[in-house]
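Figure 6 in text form: structure in, sequence out.
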């Protein structure tokens, strides 16, 4: 499995080679040698499991039979609310075999988030593990389309016990003969001025993820990959599931959260050769003494995605361990569109060059290519299989992503004379914080539920470690006065209303918010004001 080598030749000769019919469960998981190592899993309690592709083939067949017995049919939407356990992979694979549309949900989601996703998608089943079942149960009365509730790791009245059903299910299952154009996944974005959108991806997308695994992750025979992304995010579908397993790569999968010392110990203990982390994790590790003392000699390739990584961090890893961090850029709606690749000179601070199969342009407001050095919108030409089919039941939102035949990412950059792209900024209001994409509308909606809040506007403000922090500008009602105690109360309130990572880490009380003549809040003015303070 070669790296990109001669970039220009690879880019020019690349072909997606998408088959007309494809089912990832059948054509990838079942097709691997049964005894080939697929995963080393370490639980938060230190327990360890080692699983082969044969194990996942059997487990996914069992869940496919369970889903079919509970009435799930081809094209049905199914929400999967689970943490970092091997059964997450087995359940997603089983749903692909059934031909259902899987909707991975982040464990941090709250009842309101789940209610919206269930109602919007028309999901017929929800699978939740023991740590998330309470939140799912709280949302249950407002999810009328969900007919089956399946619990994993916990027994509860009114829920089907997943382990019991799988134990009794057959290990044989004939996967649906899905076409490449059939829907496979729905991945939700973060909302900005509206609710989150359901991004539809097809079975062709599941086939196409091997490009990123081959050229950006640079996976080779004998590698062991650790991508630290949590379940429920597009990055986990890319790099903890579809991409590496397309190449038969073994995963290291850790249930616990981020601890710098533990992270470095596991890399050494489990002979991780390829590491994929969020920029925040690299930044935090860079500040530790443990990084200086760590033995990372077996770590041959390291990548980062989610937000631009500071050049100083890249230089520090290079200085300490001779390791180059290869930054990359992509979206929920597509794949790694631009990246730094092995075999291509890395210029710290640059996004890199377009990925093979991705015809990236920088265009102006009329849809014309910008000259080198001029900032414009990052745009994708054509219709590669990694590009989404559209937003679920939102044709106008889908149409708004296109200009003059190009798909617009919503971000801005410029291209230099040697083909490198340089990120300038986001043209929408989504906040990238510690690898999470956070929609201001979701946080504002939570704040407005508090009795003290009349209005709020949420923006991202620069932060050395997290990239950006969520900051809320809040207008209070007459009977309430600004105080440190109220700041804490509003933060805690937000944590209960929506996923905790979304809460505003800074709150500023203001008399009024800047608005357009039509009454829309001008977040851009707030961001600009924050920029002048730095």
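Output sequence:
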């Amino acid at each position: 499995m070669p790296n990109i080598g001669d970039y220009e030749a690879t880019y020019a000769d690349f072909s997606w080679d998408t088959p007309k019919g494809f089912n990832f469960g059948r054509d990838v998981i079942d097709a691997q040698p049964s005894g080939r190592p697929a995963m080393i899993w370490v639980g938060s309690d230190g327990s360890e499991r080692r699983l082969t592709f044969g194990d996942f083939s059997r487990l996914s067949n069992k869940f496919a039979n369970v889903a079919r017995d509970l009435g799930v049919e081809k094209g049905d939407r199914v929400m999967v609310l689970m943490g970092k356990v091997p059964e997450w992979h087995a359940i997603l694979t089983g749903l692909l075999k059934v031909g259902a549309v899987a909707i991975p949900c982040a464990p941090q989601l709250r009842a309101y988030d789940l209610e919206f996703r269930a109602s919007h998608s028309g999901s017929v089943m929800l699978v939740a593990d023991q740590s998330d079942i309470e939140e799912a149960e709280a949302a249950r009365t407002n999810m009328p389309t969900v007919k089956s509730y399946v619990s994993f790791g916990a027994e509860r009245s009114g829920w089907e016990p997943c382990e019991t059903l799988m134990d009794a299910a057959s290990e044989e299952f004939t996967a649906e003969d899905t076409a490449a154009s059939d829907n496979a996944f729905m991945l939700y974005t973060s909302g900005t001025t509206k609710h989150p959108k359901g991004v539809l991806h097809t079975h062709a997308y599941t086939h196409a993820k091997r490009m990123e695994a081959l050229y950006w992750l640079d996976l080779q025979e004998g590698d062991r990959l650790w991508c630290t992304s949590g379940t429920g995010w597009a990055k986990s579908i890319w790099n903890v599931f579809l991409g590496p397993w397309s190449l038969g790569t073994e995963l290291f999968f850790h249930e616990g959260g981020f601890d710098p010392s533990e992270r470095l110990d596991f890399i050494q203990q489990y002979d991780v050769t390829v590491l994929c982390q969020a920029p925040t994790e690299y930044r935090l590790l860079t500040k530790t003494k443990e990084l200086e003392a760590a033995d990372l000699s077996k770590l041959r390739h390291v990548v980062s995605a989610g937000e631009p990584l500071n050049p100083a961090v890249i230089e520090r890893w290079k200085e300490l361990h001779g390791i180059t961090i290869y930054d990359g850029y992509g979206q929920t709606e597509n794949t790694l569109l631009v990246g730094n690749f092995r075999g291509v000179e890395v210029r710290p601070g640059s996004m890199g060059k377009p990925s093979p199969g991705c015809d990236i342009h920088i265009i102006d407001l009329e849809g014309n290519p910008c000259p080198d050095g001029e900032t414009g919108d990052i745009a994708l030409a054509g219709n590669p299989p990694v590009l989404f089919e559209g937003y679920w039941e939102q044709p106008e939102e889908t149409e708004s992503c296109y200009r003059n035949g190009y798909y617009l990412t919503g971000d801005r950059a410029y291209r230099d004379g040697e083909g490198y792209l340089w990120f300038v900024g986001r043209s929408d209001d989504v906040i990238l914080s510690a690898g999470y994409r956070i929609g201001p509308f979701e946080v504002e909606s939570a704040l407005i539920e508090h009795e003290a809040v009349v209005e709020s506007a949420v923006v991202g403000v620069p932060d050395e470690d997290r990239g950006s922090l969520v900051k809320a500008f809040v207008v209070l009602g007459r009977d309430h006065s600004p105080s440190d105690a109220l700041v804490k109360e509003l933060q805690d309130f937000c944590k209960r209303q929506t996923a905790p990572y979304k809460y505003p880490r800074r709150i500023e009380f203001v008399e009024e918010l800047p608005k357009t003549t039509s009454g829309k809040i001008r977040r851009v003015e707030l961001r600009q004001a924050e920029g002048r303070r730095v």
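Caption detail: The longest helix spans residues 53-69.
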